[in-house]
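Obj.: predict assembly geometry.
Materials: sequence records (below).
Method: joint structure prediction, all chains together.
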Amino acid sequence: DAKTTQPPSMDCAEGRAANLPCNHSTISGNEYVYWYRQIHSQGPQYIIHGLKNNETNEMASLIITEDRKSSTLILPHATLRDTAVYYCIVRPIQGAQKLVFGQGTRLTINP
Amino acid sequence: DTAVSQTPKYLVTQMGNDKSIKCEQNLGHDTMYWYKQDSKKFLKIMFSYNNKELIINETVPNRFSPKSPDKAHLNLHINSLELGDSAVYFCASSLTSGGTLSHEQYFGPGTRLTVT
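Observations (raw structure tokens):
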């Protein structure tokens, strides 16, 4: 079962920052937070991951709260191509490599 | 192009038939996966192979049999297809070196299986 909670849907205007929240209140010290997205009819795509520090790459930023019980994925300048289902996943540092997907957040970018 | 590829992209077949889906990755990865996405869009792991060895086998009917002839290929054979097998099947791969956690899994484009 997924160990994360996300809002089922969100809207954002094109060009604005999209902030997607995720609750993972039962996360343990040896688990990372991952974000993937799935654009319609495509395979999931890795976005970013983090353990406890904030992270940024060319796609997005990940803000993890100090207690690690929640995080926010930020798409700084959303475009129409960012419309997708976004999945927040927690996974142990060691052990099975599987990804456990929840329901995700369906993000719609509006022109 | 370097990628994870799957064939076929679409597969329509009748109940009771046996079918196979093929997956190939040219990323040099050593771990491959099969995921199933059902009609409600839930995405669930089925199997994982590391260096041709089965390491993850979720609660999947015995009618599903993965086969990994080499590190670059992971095929999925399904016997006696049922209506409930209709779904999109995604192959994925990652690099796991000596037990080091691989942070990124690369997914294929999916195979949409329809059983009638």
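Conclusions so far: The two ends of chain A are 35 Å apart (CA to CA).
To do: check interface contacts against the pulldown list.
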